[in-house]
Amino acid sequence: MTDSDFHPGERIEALESAIDELREAIARSRRLMTAGGAAAVAGPLLLVALILGLVAFTPALTLVALALLIGGIVLMGSSKSSTEQLERALALAQTQRDAAIDSLGLVADERPPIDAPGRVLTWRSRTERP
Fold it and tell me: What is the DSSP letter of 3?
């Protein structure tokens, strides 16, 4: 089924769902970027602690510190790249949703409903007569 096979309302719903999923993915990616940054800081701190003798030197701890440093940098960089891609996809989906809403041809109708006092903002089609 292509995008043109959707009724405009269904297309808007599908785009809203995709936008929500993209926002969740961006949040996950940002959390991974933060974790990568923390690991990239923890690795050098552990190396400094090993060099200063604050922590007993062992080859295993040295490898852990180096792994934290390298892994943190890699995780932070890849998450940043993923976040940027997801943000571009989100902007595109929002633009498509806005275009789909605009294609419905809705305009503001400030006529109050018959049974309600005061002015209430409702929507009507551009082809509908006031």
Answer: G
DSSP character for 56?
A: -
The C-alpha R_g of the chain, in whole angstroms, comes to: 26
Name the pairing type of β-strands 106-109 and 122-125: antiparallel
pLDDT tens for 8-22 read 788 889 999 999 999
Residue 98 CA to residue 37 CA, distance in Å, equals: 36
Q: Which of 90, 70, 82 is nearest to 33 (CA)?
A: 82
Contact call for residues 74 and 20 (beta carbons, < 8 A): no
- pTM assigned to the model: 0.71
Element (H, E) at 57: none
Cα 7 to Cα 19: distance, rounded to the nearest angstrom: 18
Nearest Cα to Cα of residue 87 among 25, 16, 14, 17: 25
Bridge partners (DSSP) listed for residue 88:
none
Q: How far apart are CA 106 and CA 57, in angstroms?
A: 70
